[in-house]
Amino acid sequence: MQGKAPGPTVLISALIHGNEICGAVALDHLLTSSFLPARGRLILAFANVDAYARFDSARPYLARFINEDMNRLWSADILGGRQKSAELTRARALRPLAEKADFLLDLHSTSLPAPAMLLSGAHKKGQAFARRMGYPSYVVADGGHSAGVRLRDFSDFGEPAGAKCAMLVECGQHFDSDSPTVALKTVMAFLLACGMIDDVPEDIPLLPRLGRQQFIEVSETVTIRSDRFTFSGEFQCFEIIPKAGTQIAEDGSHKILTPYDDCVLVMPARQPVRGHTAVRLGRFVAG
Ligand SMILES: [Zn+2]
User: Fold this and answer.
1) What is the pTM of this model?
2) Are strands 138-141 and 214-223 parallel, antiparallel or unpaired?
3) CATH number of the domain bearing residue 99
4) How far is the CA of 104 from the centre of ligand 1 (A)?
């Protein structure tokens, strides 16, 4: 979509994970309504459409990907390498769009119920951009996964300096009926912050007034090392563990303890899998 006036190139992607449909619903709304940006060029990408095509409501978690997680492939080495998979083929096709974009928003949802949150990346520029967006109210600064680079951290988006900026948004649980609305509101907050639009179209639910955002800085990502990983409790997201040294999980014979007081648990895994992220540990910080 091309605005009348010159402006930034913005890429918004949905379905990087094939069963996270809220983003696709939001992009479909933009395509089927009379939406046009005021300035700049807006690119909408439905990423892992092959995985989405396999979506079966009886087994909704299986459509996340076909061969591998498409959100762990975004390093020059992997994209330019010789490995092959359904997701790499698609990521390589999308790469020029990601390279062209000045701003990138990647729409996701969570396996477990969790409040909507922006993942602003490891650098201050991400937090500053999230502040400009003002929505949703939780902002998590983290560096990603040891299993591979996310689209939001691809190339210049992952660098501390430079004007290029990316956001990942988790819009709530995959199948929560509110998640598509959260996705659409986040798209609007993002386009306003990019300077691509001046107003939210009338057919889109109003954004809440800019309120107090809550910022969490992730200090470490716990990666699962064994096939015997269990959490010590039924964690969902944003639990605050008051005392340092509290056991939160066991990974084989290794106990996982909180490293400091008031440690916040961010997005614990629904089903622990060796090599994947179990949970991120962080702290609330002043916005
Ligand atoms: Zn996702």
Assistant:
1) 0.95
2) parallel
3) 3.40.630.10
4) 15
Is the CB of residue 4 less than 8 Å from the CB of residue 97? no
Ligand 1: centre distance to CA 18 (Å): 8
Claim to verify: residue 29 and residue 160 sit in the same structural domain: yes
What residues have a C-beta under 5 A from ligand 1, the ion? Answer: 17, 20, 108
d(C-alpha 150, C-alpha 255), whole Å: 28
From first to last of its 287 residues, the chain has per-residue pLDDT tens of 999 999 999 999 999 999 999 999 999 999 999 899 999 999 999 999 999 999 998 998 889 999 999 999 999 999 999 999 999 999 999 999 999 999 999 999 999 899 999 999 999 999 999 999 999 999 999 988 888 999 999 999 999 999 999 999 999 999 999 999 999 999 999 999 999 999 999 888 777 766 689 999 999 999 999 999 999 999 999 999 999 999 999 999 999 999 999 999 999 998 889 999 999 999 999 87
Within a domain: 211:
no
Q: How remote is the CA of residue 109 from the centroid of ligand 1, in Å?
A: 6
190 and 77 in a common domain: yes
Query: Ligand 1: distance of its center to the CA of 6 in Å?
Result: 32
170 C-alpha to ligand 1 centroid (Å)? 7
Ligand 1 centroid distance, CA of 44 (Å): 17
Q: What SS3 state is found at 264?
A: strand
- The C-alpha atoms of residue 125 and residue 103 are separated, in whole angstroms, by 12
Structural domain that includes position 118: 5-194
Residues 163 and 237 in one domain: no
